[in-house]
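Lab notes, practical 5.
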Amino acid sequence: MKPVKILACVIVTLAALLLPAANATAQDKLKLAIGQRGFWDTAISHLGTKAGIFKKHGLELELLYTSGGGETQQAVISGSVDVGLAAGTMGVLGAYSKGAPVRIIGAQATGAADFWYAQTSSGIKTLKDTDGKTIAYSTNGSSTHSIALAFVKDFNLKAKLVATGNPAVTLTQVMTGQVDVGWASPPFGFKDMEEGKIRIVAKAMDSPLVRGQTIRLIITNTDTLTKRRDVLARYIAAYRETIEYMYSNNPQVMKDYAEFVGVPETGARRVRDEFFPKSLLWPDEIKGIDVMMPEAVTFKYIPAPLTKEQIAELIQIPPRK
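Output from the prediction step:
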């Protein structure tokens, strides 16, 4: 065989060997908007990326953090991101009812660890002490907005609700007297509670709206769902696998989370073990829609309850394989 033909055969053989390897390392990119940085339940994509789980599923994630579910929802609807996490359920119901191109691909939080607090020196010990006061939530259309509205309704409060953004900004507003009652989620606020600066006056689970119901969602827009359904299915598969990892005995997950939020590992473990049961994070079922629908009408998120056909169109969770 002539040298030129031998060289050609070698090149073809090498190309055949290298092509599968190149395809195997190619990663599909997903841009994510995540409501609030640092919460245990919003750290899934970060921790799964650190552990190499999303890469194993052929995914490269770009993580963008927002000040709340309202901002997350708008980023998804506008198409500036592929997936939104921790979008408030009522806000999503409202957007869908108005014709927004949004779809639900998973539950992000069923129940909630959020809490509301006041300065210890304020004299506010419970929500009943908030008449004429201000109560914080993150952004319009967020789950904390829905919970704050539920507090007003459930406890017949005469308080003003104020959008304050993320927990760090909210804490500053509470400590400077701009807002009377702030909101947070573990581990935010632990240090100030230990130092006696603030006290918890209510927990999200105090509201029937929250108990056993999915209050935050994983969402995408219709265009992404149509064009990238397989990629989204792999994302949810990796998401499930990451949750299993987060509740395993692997010590690395606590090291990574503690580093992520800047707390000791003992504090990181307390966040998980005391405030976030695994069931709170599991994405496979949207619970309590039938209960939330009348509340969504009452709070003027939607003009009328969605039909079964509309709910089936809205909720499209990728099945487990």
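Observations recorded by the TA: The chain has two domains: 27-111+212-261+278-314, 115-206. The chain is about 45% helix and 20% strand.
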